[in-house]
Amino acid sequence: MARVHPDIYFFGGGTAEGRADMRDLLGGKGANLAEMASLKLPVPPGFTISTRVCNYFYDHGHKYPKALDTAAAKSVARVEKILGRKFGDAKNPLLVSVRSGARVSMPGMMDTVLNLGLTDETVKGLEAVSGNARFAWDSYRRFCQMYGDVVLKLKPENKNDRDPFEELIERKKIHRGVKEDVELSVDDLRELVSEFRDLIRSRVGRDLPQDPEKQLWEAIGAVFDSWNNDRAIAYRKFNNIPGDWGTAVTVQSMVFGNLGADCATGVAFTRNPSTGARGIYGEFLPNAQGEDVVAGIRTPLQISLAAGREWAERNSVVEAERVARFPTLEESFPLVYKELLKIAQRLEKHFRDMQDMEFTIERGRLFMLQTRTGKRTAEAAVRTAVEMVGERLLDRRAALMRVEPVQLEQLLHPRLDPAAAKEVIARGLPASPGAVSGEVVFSADEATVVQAAGRKVILVRHETSPEDIHGMQVAEGILTARGGMTSHAAVVARGMGKCCVAGCSALEIDYAGGALKVGDRVIRRGEYITLDGSTGEVIAGRVPTVQPEMSDFFVKFMHWADQERKLGVRANADTPSDARLAREYGAEGIGLCRTEHMFFGPDRIDAMREMIMAEDKQQRARALDKIVPMQRADFVGILREMAGLPVTIRLLDPPLHEFLPKEDEEIRKLAENIGTTPERLRQIRDSLEEFNPMLGHRGARLGVSYPEIYRAQARAILEAATALRAEGVRAIPEIMLPLIGERKEFEVLAADIRDVAREVASRDGGKLQYHIGTMIEVPRACIEAGEIAAVADFFSFGTNDLTQMTYGLSRDDSARFLDDYISRGIYKKDPFQELDPEGVGGLMRIAIERGRKAKKNLSIGICGEHGGDPASVKLCHKLGLDYVSCSPFRLPVARLAAAQAAIEGRKSKREFKDV
Ligand code: ADP
Ligand code: MG
Ligand code: MG
Q1: Confidence at 224, pLDDT banded by 50, 70, 90
Q2: 99 CA to middle of ligand 1, Å?
Q3: Reduced to 3 states, what is the DSSP secondary structure of residue 566?
Q4: Which of these is catalytic: 5, 413, 488, 657?
Q5: How far apart are the first and last CA of the chain?
Q6: pLDDT at 902 > cutoff 80
Q7: For a pocket test of ligand 1, which of 109, 114, 139 has the largest count of ligand atoms closer than 8 A to its C-beta?
Q8: CB 376 less than 6 A from any atom of ligand 1
Q9: Residue 712 and residue 390: Cα distance in Å, rounded?
Q10: pLDDT at 553 over 50
Q11: Does the annotation mark 863 as catalytic?
Q12: Cβ–Cβ < 8 Å for 848, 881
C-alpha cells in the first residue's frame, strides 16, 4: 500500500513502513514496533507520526503540517480494516493508545494516553462486545484519569498533594471497605467516572471531550508537548540529549490486559539485567493494564518459575503460599510463556543485544508492545557481552564495544547490598564510587581521632581543602555540600579510590553544633550514615555492603581488551598498598607517584614543616636528613610492589605554604618543637604567601631555589633502588620534574640528580638504572618540546595544569562559572573532566611531534584525572601516546577505553579505504 503521508509510518498486519534503524524519525519505540511488525511478531496495528512533526508543531505555534489530519484518518481506517472495529463506533469501538517515543529512551519522562476513543456512547458498545461491564468501565475510568492528567494537565496542586484522581479512588476504596482496585464493582467504577469528570469540570472548566476525533488530536498535541515538560528537560540536560530531537507519536490499537483472569500485562528482559544470567526475567500482573506494573499498585508476579522461587525465598514465602498466591507466568500461562520465550530469543538474535520488552496478554493471546535495548548493571553488561560471543551473536570486538567503560568502575568497589532496605535522606553528585558507612565527623582532626580509636568515619564538610587530606585519608568516605565533579574533594577522593558524594546542596552543616540537617532530618556527630558514591545517595544509618569479586567473565573480558589495545596503562599510586592494587587491576607501571602526599602523615608533617621553616641551608639539611629515610622506605615499598615495571616519581610540586599550619595552637607547638618563636614562624609563613600560588613558587622552581630538596628526594629514590637491586628486585625508577618550561631549567635540575646518582653509585657500588624526565604541563613546554626532549628521557603530560594554563582557567575557582559556559553552549564539556581535543589536544600534538622528532623513542604518557576518562583515553590513543595513567580503580575503564579506541581506529581506517 502506498504511503499516506511522508511523516506517517504504518505498521501491522505483518508489514511495516518503518524500520529499526529509523529511530531518529520514529523514536526508539516506533522504530522497534515497526521492526517487530515486519518480523511478523504479534504487534497490535498502528502508525507513528515522525519527530519532524514534533519540531514543526513547536515551530508553528502548535499547528500540524498540511494534510496530516486526512492522512492520519486514512491510517486509522487501515487499522479499522485489519481489526474489524471502528474508531468512535457506538457498537464495536476501536480504542487506541497515543504513545510518546524519542530517539533515545527517556524512561517515564514523557506521556502516554491509553484507551482513547471511549465516550459515554462507545463505553456501552465496549461493554456489549466484550460482555464484560467491569472491564469497560475500568477502561473508561483509566481513560478519564490519563486524559485528565496528560491532556488537561490536572496534576496535584502542590508537592505534598496526592494525585487528585488517585485520591478519589482511595476514598472510594475506603468507603467500600476494599483494599485493591480490582475489588471495586462496576457501579463503583461508574461512579468514579462521573466523579472524575466532575473534578475535571470544576478544575479545568470544561468536560472530557465526547468526540473521539478531538480526543485523538488533543492527545497527540499533549504528547508532543510532553517533550518539553520539566522532567524531560531536566533529564535531557543531565544526559546531554539535544532539545531539538523531538518526540515521535505512535497511535496504536489497544489490546487489553484487564479483561479478566486470562489477561495480563508485563515487562520482561531477555536476560537478568542485574546479573546478566541467561533466561527470561521480568514481572507481570494478571488482569491489569500496562502502567499498573510500574506504578506499584499491586505486587507484580515473576515470569519464570526459577525467578519466582528465588523471589519467594528472598521474601520468606513458603512454596505452598507462593503457588497459591504468587504463581509465575510459566505456571499460570504456560503456552504464552513458551511463546514469549521464543519471541525473546528471536528478538535477541535479531538485535544482537539484550532486550527489554513490554507485553500484554488478552484472553490468552500474547501481544508485543515494545522492545528496546535493556539497561543493565556493569556486571550484567560484562557477562552478557562475554556470553554472546560464546553464543555467536557477537564477535569479540563487537562485545568489547558493548560495555560502557565508565561502568566498569562499579565492579571494583564494594556495593550496597541490593536486598537491604535504605532510607535515602539526600542526593549529591556521584563523585567517586563505592559504598561506605561510618560515623559522621565534621573535621579532619576529628576524623583521625575517631579512626585511631578503631571506628569508621565519614568526613562531612562544606568543601575540602589540602588541609583536610589527613582526615580524608582515614575516612571511609567523604561528603560535601558544595563543589562539583572536579572539586577538591571529588578529585582527591577519586585519586585515593575513596567513596565521595560531593555538592549535596540539600545538606545544612552546622560545624559548631556538630550536626547536619536535611529538611527536618537531623543527624548528629557520631551517628551513622551511608554513602553510595555511584548514585550520590546519602542514606541514614548503616546499610550492609557486598564485596565485589572479579568474575571469570570480567577476567576474560579484560583479557580481550588487553589484546586489542595499543596504549599502555599505568596507575597513579602513592603508597605500596595502592601499588599492589594497581598491579592487581592490570597496571603496567606507575605513571605518577606524588611525593607530597607522603608528607602529610602525622609523623612526617613536622619534619617537613621544619624543613620549610629552616632559616638557612644547615637547618634545612638537618630537617631533610630526617625526611630522607622515611621517603626511602616509601620508595622501597612501592618499587618492590612494582618490581620489573617502571615507576614514575614526581619530585615535590606544591607551593610550600600548603604544608604549613594555620591554627595558632599548631604554630605554637611547631615553634616549640623546632626551637623558635611563634612570631618568627608567622613571619616566615607570611613571607611564603603568594598572590597566585598556582603560578607561583612551586614545581621545578622549588628545585631551583632549594636544590637540597630535590637532591634529597633523588637520593631517597636512588638509594631505595640500589637497596632493592642488592636483594635482586628489579627496580626501575623514573624521576620526574614538574612544571618544566625551559630546557636549561631541566638541565640544571637533571645535573643535580645525576650528581647524586654518582654519589650513590660510588658509595653503594653497582650500576644504577634510572631515567630523568619531565611533566609537560605548561604551554611553553609544548612549544619547546624539541629542545626539552633533547635532554629528557621521557614526557608525561600533566593535563590538569596544562588545561588550567591553556584556558587560563583555575580549576578550583571554575565551578562558579563553568556551568554557565556549559548551559550556554560555549563549552560542550568541563575541560577538567574530558580532555579538550582542539586546544589542549592541539598543544599535546605539537609537543609529541617536536619531542619525537628530537628523540625518536621518547616515551610519552599522560597522568592525572584525564587518564581515567574514556573520551580522553581515546584522544590519547589517537595522539599516539605510549600510555595513560589513572587511579587504580579506573584501570579497567582505561583498558577498555583504549581497546575501544583501537577497534574504532581500525574501523574508521577501513571505512576510509572503502570510500
Ligand atoms: P512508557 O514510555 O512510559 O513506557 P508506553 O507508551 O510504553 O509509555 O506505554 C505505557 C504503558 O502502556 C506500557 O506498559 C505499554 O505497554 C502500555 N500500552 C501502550 N500502548 C498500548 C496498547 N496499544 N495496548 C495495550 N497497552 C499499551
Ligand atoms: Mg514503555
Ligand atoms: Mg601539575
Answers
A1: very high
A2: 7
A3: coil
A4: 488
A5: 36
A6: yes
A7: 114
A8: no
A9: 56
A10: yes
A11: yes
A12: yes
365-373 and 355-362 beta bridge pairing: antiparallel
Question: 370 in ligand 1 pocket by Cβ < 6 Å?
Answer: yes
Query: At 219, which helix (H) or strand (E)?
Result: helix 212-226
What's the number of CA atoms in the CB half-sphere (13 Å) around residue 686?
6
Q: Are 49 and 251 within 8 A, CB to CB?
A: yes
Q: 99 CB less than 6 Å from ligand 1?
A: yes
Amino acid (one-letter) located at 396: R
Task: Report CA-CA distances (Å) from 247 to 3, 113, 527, 823, 883.
Answer: 21, 15, 47, 22, 42
- 724's CB contacts (< 8 A; 6+ apart) are 636, 639, 640, 643, 730, 731
Four-CA torsion 222, 224, 225, 230, nearest 10 degrees = 120
The model's pLDDT over 58-93, given as tens digits with 9 standing for 90+, comes to 999 999 999 999 999 999 999 999 999 999 999 999
Letter string b/e over residues 500-513, b meaning 16 or more CB atoms within 10 A of that residue's CB: bbbbbeebebeeee
Cα separation, 166 vs 196, in Å, equals 10
State the sign of the Cα–Cα–Cα–Cα dihedral 327, 331, 333, 337.
positive
- Answer yes or no: is the C-beta of 255 below 6 A from any ligand 1 atom: yes
Whole-model pTM: value is 0.83
CB 469 within 8 A of CB 797: no
DSSP structure class, residue 118: -
Chain centre distance of CA 780: 36
- Report how far residue 267's alpha carbon sits from residue 555's, in angstroms, rounded to the nearest whole number: 32
* Residues ≥6 apart with Cβ < 8 Å to 888: 497, 571, 572, 573, 578, 581, 582, 585, 587
d(CA 669, CA 610): 12
593 is catalytic: no
Tell me the CA–centroid distance for residue 298 and ligand 1, in Å: 18
